[in-house]
Design a protein that fits this description.
It is a single chain. The protein has 276 residues and is mainly alpha-helical. It is built from 13 helices and no strands. It has a single domain, classed as Orthogonal Bundle (MetI-like fold). The chain is globular, with a radius of gyration of 22 Å.
Length: 276
């Protein structure tokens, strides 16, 4: 076989493997669509328990996203711009919750913020603040697993940014805060939007850390993923409908992000990884 023939067949082989990969990801969704009880789907979605879980999921995920932006953007800036000993260790620590099992993250949160936890005992003693098994605990658990998605996306954009624009602004008399607000943030806006929406989508679908740290109390800590899990034990058809509701929400978000925002953010992240 000639080398030219081999080169001609390579794209076909790659396309075939890519098609199998697409099928691997699409098959579970097709299975849900096939098994979904469409005749009773509306009743499940409009059930008071489902509506309460959906509202709790949306409200807590929005609070979690706000916290991720408030703390995650400064963290990303420090990781991208400030040289200090152990920066790699800090980066690994701040993104660790992306790779550890969510249940493990929930156990760790409980050990730190529980009533007898490392910090939680003092929050309870000094302020009467008890995070476990509360709505605030849901927000904390969601933030713990969602913030790294924003941090890694924004850090990548900051690393690839042309810093000469900031230096020019400072040369013209701009303060560091003014340059950050009027030059840095607008230039990384695609990555910031992508990271924010990815953090929101991750928070919306969070399950393991939430049920471990905050419990599963209807109206207080039972989010939609937890409701789907509970329904799986009592009524699998309801669980399928709730799962489809969550998947469709995340799918629409990712489709809307991909070309305009997520592509630019991924480019910046990839360059950041290459520079390391």
């Amino acid at each position: 076989m000639s080398s030219r023939t081999t080169r001609d067949r390579l794209p076909l082989a790659v396309m075939g493997l890519a098609a199998l990969a697409v099928g691997f990801f699409a098959l579970p969704l097709l299975g849900l669509l096939w098994r979904a009880p469409w005749s009773s789907a509306w009743d499940v979605v409009t059930d008071p328990i489902t509506r309460a879980a959906l509202w709790l999921s949306i409200s807590c995920s929005l609070w979690s996203t706000a916290a991720s932006v408030l703390f995650g953007v400064p963290l990303a800036w420090v990781l991208a711009r400030v040289e200090f000993p152990g920066r790699g260790v800090v980066r690994a620590l701040c993104t660790l919750s992306m790779v550890v099992p969510p249940v493990v993250g929930g156990v760790a949160l409980f050990a730190a913020l529980g009533r007898r936890g490392l910090l939680g005992q003092y929050l309870d003693l000094w302020f009467g603040l008890r995070l476990p098994f509360s709505t605030a605990g849901v927000v904390v658990a969601q933030t713990f697993v969602a913030m790294p998605f924003l941090v890694i996306t924004v850090e990548g954009a900051l690393r690839q940014q042309d810093r000469r624009l900031e230096e020019a602004a400072r040369t013209l008399g701009a303060t560091s805060w003014y340059a950050f607000r009027r030059v840095t943030l607008p230039s990384i806006r695609p990555a910031l939007i992508a990271g924010t929406v990815l953090a929101w989508a991750r928070a919306l679908g969070e399950f393991g850390a939430t049920i471990t740290f905050a419990g599963n109390f209807p109206g207080r800590t039972q989010t939609l993923p937890l409701a789907a899990y509970l329904a799986l034990e009592t009524d699998p058809d309801d669980a399928i409908v709730l799962s489809l509701l969550l998947i469709s929400t995340s799918f629409v978000v990712l489709v809307g992000l991909r070309d305009r925002w997520l592509g630019a953010a991924a480019s910046g992240t990839g360059r950041s990884v290459a520079e390391r």
